[in-house]
Design brief:
By secondary structure, the protein is α/β, with parallel strands linked by helices. The protein has two domains: 107 residues, Roll (CBS-domain); 56 residues, no CATH class. 30% of the residues lie in helices and 22% in strands. It has a three-stranded mixed sheet with strand order 1-2-3. Strands 4-5-6 form a three-stranded mixed sheet. A hairpin with a 2-residue loop joins strand 2 and strand 3. The longest helix is centred in the first third of the chain and has 11 residues. The two termini are 26 Å apart.
Length: 174
Amino acid sequence: MSTNVPRVKSSDTILEAANVMNRERTSGAAVVEGEKVVGLITERALLWKFVPLNKRPDEVSVGEMLVPFFRIGPDESTKTAAKTMVENRITRLRVFEDEKFLGWVTLTDLAREFSKPRLLKALMAREEPEDKQVLCPNCRKDEHRGCNPEMGMPELPLLSVTLHFSEISRFSST
């Protein structure tokens, strides 16, 4: 979770918000009215909502480009955060304790949490083998019967591959 979230006022212009986001090197900022967080402004909002207006960035207020936000509590699991983000096609979740804004969880935060060593460990924990069958590249059928006799392609046997997750570590770099 990122707790040092840039903030802009809903009365600020898009130009001012873009300057804050550039200075802070972030793709979004919390929008506040007084001390209360009322929404979010993001790069996506600028692309999807502001650019089509064909106006100057100093002519449009942040309040006109607000993006609604989804919220979670500080005790929610990483899995819950990831599921919420995927289901709602969003890149960040606001973290609130009651009505107090604590920060946000971003896709980058989740990527760090689900780092490669942890992911590999989770994959290797699965014991049962997974059978894969290679399909004919021409006809995409699971039984190859010489799908292109005009080209003189010989009949090829199917290749069946069984991979155990414990074998994956031999092929992946750490």
